[in-house]
Amino acid sequence: VNEQLVGVVEVADSLGTVSQRLWRLGQYILIVLGLQLVLGGLIGYILAIRLGRPLTTTTRAVVELANGEYIEPPLREKGSAETKALSRSVNILSKRLRLLESTRRRSLANLVHEIGRPLGAIKAAIQVLREGADEDPVLRQELLTGIDKEIGRLQPLLDDLAQLHGQVTGKIQLQKEEVALSEWLPPLLLPWRAAAQEKGLHWQTDIPLNLPVIAIDPAKMAQVMGNLLSNAIKYTPEGGEVRVTAVAQPDHIAIAVQDTGPGIDPVEHKRVFEPFYRSTAQRRFPQGLGLGLSISQEIVAAHGGTLQLKSAPGEGSTFTIILPRPTATLAS
Fold first, then answer.
1. Which domain, by its residues, includes 317?
2. Which of 43, 107, 123, 186 has a C-alpha 20 to 30 A away from that of 28?
3. 121 contacts 150 by C-beta, under 8 angstroms
4. Is 33 a domain residue?
5. 160: in domain
6. How many domains is the chain built from?
7. How far is residue 102's CA from residue 216's CA, in Å, rounded to a whole number?
8. In-domain check, residue 29
């Protein structure tokens, strides 16, 4: 008091009490850290399950696809956006592989049928000849004509398979020569006109006399025209019409084959040009391998052109060959 020391107050605590408090604080810290570790591990485990299980399932599915197996049922598209996208892609791949396998089996069955039918007829004719039919000149000639006809049916099939091999190996060879289209097309169409009329179809052509001279492989382009005309006649019902037109434009020439058949759904327009694919309308007819349009497109492309399709169900189909006109022709 008045700047003089009059007394001392001493505050003291037991060291045991302080140690006890520190011990409790350490326990609390350890408990909190333990809870954090447990909670963090639990959260990590849950995340690992949610993320890892879809990836594990997807990986297993990819291995199955690589081994030639199909995913059944499809993968569930769950998890993160990336995992969903991956599962969706694997499902699409599985669906396409299943479709390709189905197409391969159907094509193999068609191939066996297409080859087996004429071979069976040839074998039967040879058997009849061996049994003495060759002694009858008329019957012998009929059998030989039949054998020749069946061999003729085999030849286009073999040509298509050879052409397909050329597509796969990229070896489509063209033997181009200058061709006057106005003179080349009419005789090419004659046998097809007869086939159409024999089926009871109306046949129409519009081939101008002033079509230009262009460089093409006449044999291969005749194959393209044959494929288009054969399809048009095959799928057009009796009383329908097949029309062939040709138009010369400043930069290209268009040759169109139009029919009044069942038509092709727009969703199938791209696929009809795939090897072995047969559209819904084509499946009604067992003949053929589904190679004609694919080969035709490749031949036209080798000429620098395109093969276009315009069609809809119930409205018929129009296939148009677009060939570029040469620069010299344009200049003239």
1. 177-331
2. 43
3. yes
4. no
5. no
6. 1
7. 37
8. no
Read off the tokens for 253: 């020439």
Instruction: Return d(Cα 103, Cα 256) in angstroms, integer.
Output: 29
Please state the pTM of the whole predicted model.
0.58
| Cα distances (Å, whole numbers) of residue 155 to 148, 221, 234 | 11, 17, 19
Whether residue 89 contacts residue 61, with contact meaning beta carbons closer than 8 Å, is answered with no
Q: How far apart are CA 217 and CA 302, in angstroms?
A: 10
Side by side, which strands form the sheet with 317-324?
Answer: 202-206, 241-248, 252-259, 317-324, 306-311
